[in-house]
Inverse folding.
């Protein structure tokens, strides 16, 4: 099992969460909520209003999201879904645990003792330069005050 941190449309209550609970795509078990240890810019960009975490450590906010344990099948699905490695790149990042629901094994309990876990995160280093000038968010909600409604793939 691998640990994945999601901050956008794959979170509970968001448009693509259905994929996280579709066992035909693999297994994803919700473990808790967290936020990035380092600050990153989270922008909503493109004609489909997609949330992107720009891989610019030290700029922006501590991004809020959810931590999942996923099997290899789900990880492969997420790589395809996220357009990895072209649109997003899957990298390990340090995530501060805010709220833990997972039943921790000895290794996980030790890792979470200081409240920090290493998780795979889909961020991007391949973005148009003008995205750096977009507003930065600490948390993503597809129906947030930003008014930038996410466009589902099936509606594009």
């Amino acid at each position: 099992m691998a640990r994945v941190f999601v901050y956008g449309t794959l979170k509970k209550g968001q448009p693509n969460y259905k994929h996280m609970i579709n066992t035909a795509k693999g297994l994803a078990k919700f473990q808790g909520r967290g936020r990035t240890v380092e600050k990153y810019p989270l922008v909503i960009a493109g004609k489909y209003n997609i949330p992107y975490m720009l891989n610019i450590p030290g700029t922006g906010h501590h991004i809020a999201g959810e931590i999942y344990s996923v099997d290899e099948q789900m990880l492969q699905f997420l790589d395809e879904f996220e357009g990895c490695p072209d649109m997003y790149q899957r990298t390990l990042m340090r995530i501060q645990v805010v709220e833990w629901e997972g039943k921790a094994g000895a290794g996980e309990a030790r890792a979470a003792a200081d409240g920090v876990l290493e998780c795979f995160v889909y961020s991007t280093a391949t973005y148009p330069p003008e995205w750096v000038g977009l507003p930065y968010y600490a948390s993503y909600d597809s129906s947030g005050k930003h008014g930038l409604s996410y466009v589902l793939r099936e509606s594009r």
Summary: The longest helix spans residues 72-81. The chain has one domain: 2-131. The domain at 2-131 is CATH 3.10.490.10 (Hypothetical upf0131 protein ytfp).
